[in-house]
Amino acid sequence: MRIFVVFLLFLYLVLVNSANCLFKNVLSRFYCNNENCYSVLGVGENATMNDIRLSYYKKIENIKKENYNMEKKNKIIKAYKILINKQTRKYYNYYLKNPNSIINIINLFFYYIYKLLKIIFILILIILILYLFKYIFIKYNMNINIKKYSKKKLFKKYVQDRIFKEHPNYRNYDLNTKRKVEQDIEIKVFQEMELLNDRKPTQSKNGGSGSGSGSGSGSGSGSGSGSGSGSGSVTDVFIVQLLLLPKYILFYVLWNIKWIVKYIILKEEYDDCDKMYITRKCMNIPLKKWNMLREDEKKMLMKKKLWIKQNQEEFFEEIKEKQRLHKISSAKYKKQMRMKKKGLSFNYND
Q: So which residues are the signal peptide here (predicted)?
């Protein structure tokens, strides 16, 4: 009902008042306010594009020689933009002859729609180009990984078995067909092996294996799937990530605002999710790896209470001490000490 009332009101304003005061102001601001764009540039209505361009450059040069009036310069630039564009000039000529016509508003509406469509088209084109590069990169990485796998006897055996299973008459194929079939089967076998690697961390976690094997296989499969199959998950596709980027930025900004207000200004106690986040960050554990850990392992890490500043400082001191002891016990460090005693220079990083 409300929409119907609004529509009737709009129809009244359009049909009874034609281009009412509001629309008149909008149209006036879009063009050259109360001035004539042709008069601003000092050209007639029948002026050619070259005449408009020449007059514009002369006017700009004169402004530079004078006191450089910024307001006057903006007027000239606006008039030039209106008249140099064939579409806007056509609309403006109609506006001069029929200033109260509703067609002026329709023209303005279509002009902005056209501009918006142009921007959308350019963005889609950029996204498609980026997606193409992403696709080429994934295919390139897949080919490299398949070459590495093809050196393994087990992989070769799987490929051969699959070829003869799916193509019983493989031996009778010509050379080009054989090569194509072999490449297709290699890709299938490689993707299946990558899928099995992705499932290993979940199976080891459910089976009750140690955290070392779970996290190790998780990181291995993660890198493998990223460089190999790549296109297995929809969220891994670059175009989707690019489209979701504004959403991620908004969430990140809101999350930071919430954090500052809640914990820095109001000084409230950390909730369970944020306690977990601080623990992960202090221990440098990515979210994917954290999710692979068993519940008892998570509880053990949470017992450190790293969200408390004192515990956090003690934890970092402990890490520094471990790194120092590891450095002292290393062969490179011992060699450095021996060379220093002999008076020779030695860079530990070498």
A: 1-18
pLDDT in the model for residue 19: 46
- CB-CB neighbours of 302 under 10 Å: 14
Other CB atoms within 10 A of residue 161 CB: 12
Give the domain extent around 140.
122-235
Three-state DSSP class for residue 117: helix
Q: Does one domain contain both 97 and 131?
A: no
pLDDT one-digit tens code per residue, 29-77: 888 888 888 998 888 888 899 999 999 899 888 887 777 678 888 888 9
Does residue 209 surpass a pLDDT of 50? no
CATH number at 52 reads 1.10.287.110
Please spell the DSSP secondary structure of 223-266, one letter per residue: HHHHHTT--SSGGGSHHHHHHHHHHHHHHHHHHHHHHIIIIIIS
CA 142 from centroid of its chain's CA atoms? 23
Does any domain span residue 92? yes
Q: Write the single-letter amino acid at 51.
A: D
- Are 333 and 346 in contact by the 8 Å Cβ rule? The answer is no
CA 38, CA 45: separation in Å to the nearest integer? 6
> Higher pLDDT residue, 329 or 5?
329
Q: How far is residue 99 CA from its own chain's centroid?
A: 45
96: helix, coil or strand?
helix
- Residue carrying structure tokens 């220079």: 345
The answer to whether position 115 is within a domain reads: no
What is the rounded CA–CA span in Å between residue 87 and residue 104?
13
* Cβ neighbour number for residue 235 with a 10 Å cutoff: 7
pLDDT 10s digits, 155-200: 888 888 888 888 888 778 888 888 888 888 888 888 777 776 655 5
Q: Which residue has the higher pLDDT, 334 or 212?
A: 334
User: In what helix (H) or strand (E) does residue 174 lie, and over which residues does it extend?
Assistant: none
Do 21 and 64 lie in one domain? The reply is yes
